[in-house]
Fold:
Amino acid sequence: MQAQNTKQRVLFVALMFTVVLSARLLVMSRAGAFLLAIMIVIFGFCIGFRMVERLVAAMWKLAELTASKFFGQPEETAAIDPNRVGSK
Structure:
């Protein structure tokens, strides 16, 4: 697994801070707990989106590698190949 970048670390620390702080606000007021719960959900979506984004990028690279193995030449090169069937 790759090392996390700074933005992900800040998001994770902020998420943990809001989780710890939300228990305290829950005792104080319901409105504060509700707003903090919304923040926790938003941070969770941000972190989840970054994880999915990296997974999709890795799958895209894998698909590109697999396609290059199955198809030797790109389409442009094959179109101008003088040994192509029917080109005389």
Q: What stands out?
A: The chain has a mean pLDDT of 76. DSSP finds three helices and no strands in the chain.
